[in-house]
Amino acid sequence: MAGSEGEDRRKDGADSGADVERPARDRRLPAPPADLRDALLAHYDRHARPLPWRADTDPYRVWVSEVMLQQTRVETVVPYYQAWMRRFPTLETLADAPEEAVLKAWEGLGYYRRARNLARGARVVRERFGGRLPADVGDLRSIPGVGEYTAGAVASIAFGRPEPAVDGNVRRVLARLCDRPEPTAGWLRDTASTLVCPERPGDFNQALMELGATLCTPRRPACGDCPWSGWCRARAAGTQEARPLPGRRAPVPLRRIDCVVVVRGANHRSAPRLLVRRRSTEGLLGGLWEFPERVALPGIARGVPLDPVRHTFTHFRAEYRPALVRVEPGAEVAVDAAAGPTRWVTPAAAARLALPVTQRRILQAALAVLTEG
């Protein structure tokens, strides 16, 4: 299964034994598809990792695991997947769940749009497909958050459809197998379609992804243990670590973000209350709670700086610069209404909210200061 985010990564699956992109000889597969399939599946049968989602090919479970595995390492996903299935064991329970509960269950896994799309997708499946995920790739792609890769993975693993599933691992494996420095999306899709096993498409796609995750890794691939090593053109040419060529990365900007932990009522008689606000459901970290960035405070309020919190998002690096401010119980505190709804909560209640990793670290730093007095 996929271990790497995004729905920007992924048709007929019957093998004709035909060459891929016939006009160019160097684009032909280095061995008959049947030989490549047999070798890979034999290796997979011996060495497949015992992952929890492989114990059950229920379409809902396959779908959840594939979404979780986008741009996330397998070892990180396992406990989240197990907890998720305890909390939302069926598509129906997910469709009925409030968004905040879904985001809380996803907390720490990142890319929260995936969680919102899962919940939205569950409702779409209930309304449009009678509560059952469809087997057809076109129907699967009509579900929120399901792109070409996830549709192919679910169709092949859950329904036995001979559909390709091309994630970052598969891209790397196929580029090395055929010694392609810059494989195009079309070439990858055609090559994966030619290779996918009609009899065991789900196992084949998982085997191909697992090969990239465990042996054909970006650095220092374990070529001696690879079932395709004898056919691999990149290994023969000594270019395996240079395939595929890395893409050009744009500079990642740094954003400095000031935020305020406003505390009121902190004394020996009552628990303190912290001011939090909920982000818009759209956009980055949508629907999660955070400490506000802009607050109108009484003139006498003074802030205590907390340690900066740094985090790297997909397109930028963030440095949060929090400050803790104590105010009297009756003090007027105003937050821009357009910034989202606000709430005064106890520290225990704050811990139960769906908070991004950065905000949880800020909360812990603030509580440490409050505990010290």
Please characterize this protein's 3D structure.
With 373 residues, the chain is α+β, with helices and mostly antiparallel strands. The chain is 40% helix and 12% strand. It contains 14 helices and nine strands. Strands 1, 2, 3, 5, 6, 7 and 9 form a seven-stranded mixed beta sheet that branches. A two-stranded antiparallel sheet has the order 4-8.
Please outline what is shown here:
Helix content is 40%, strand content 12%.
Question: SSE layout and pairings?
Answer:
Blueprint: H1 33-47, H2 59-68, H3 74-87, H4 91-96, H5 99-106, H6 113-129, H7 137-140, H8 148-159, H9 168-177, H10 185-195, H11 201-214, H12 233-237, E1 254-264, E2 273-278, E3 289-290, E4 295-296, E5 303-305, E6 309-312, E7 317-327, E8 334-335, E9 342-345, H13 347-352, H14 357-372
Parallel strand pairs: 1-7
Antiparallel strand pairs: 1-2, 2-3, 2-9, 4-8, 5-7, 6-7
Helix pairs in contact: 1-11, 2-3, 2-8, 8-11, 9-11
